[in-house]
Amino acid sequence: MVSAFAFCNALKAGASDPTLRVFGGRPAYPFEYPYVVRMEIQGKVKLQDSYKGLSIHVCTASVLSLVWTLTAGHCIDGADYMIAHHLLESELISLVIRYGSTENSFSAVIATVNHPTYKFINIKTSQLLRNDVGLLKTMPIKLDWYGKLSAMEYPSLMGQASVAVG
Fold this sequence. Notes:
Elements: H1 4-16, E1 36-47, E2 50-63, E3 68-71, H2 73-84, E4 91-98, E5 106-114, E6 119-123, E7 126-130, E8 134-138
Antiparallel strand pairs: 1-2, 1-4, 2-3, 3-8, 4-5, 5-8, 6-7
């Protein structure tokens, strides 16, 4: 079972408490975690008389159910900012989730929800993130299995083997 909240808290705590560190990790095998997906911005760029496809990686995310995907709140903010301020010189821009083993497996993001008390403060690189978690509502993503969340405190993970992705 993957505990994204616990993993995020353990990483945050590890920065201030040297006894709380993640170690012994390894890269995942292809398709080992089918619910780990790519959040990206897609669009079409006009080049002279034709259009070229555009795909920009934003963040990774974890699919929790047919239509709900978990990601970091700052990922939602970053994607929303790029789309809203037209930082990309393109047309037909959309936020999507790319998943599976083929290039054409993607699902449109139809709504984003950040944690109600999410905060991102950047006072000249002194970044402060609070409740950095968000949900993406998507068109249906059919997978063999989905990621799971569990409520736990990071000290309970000390000395225990666990799987965390992201």
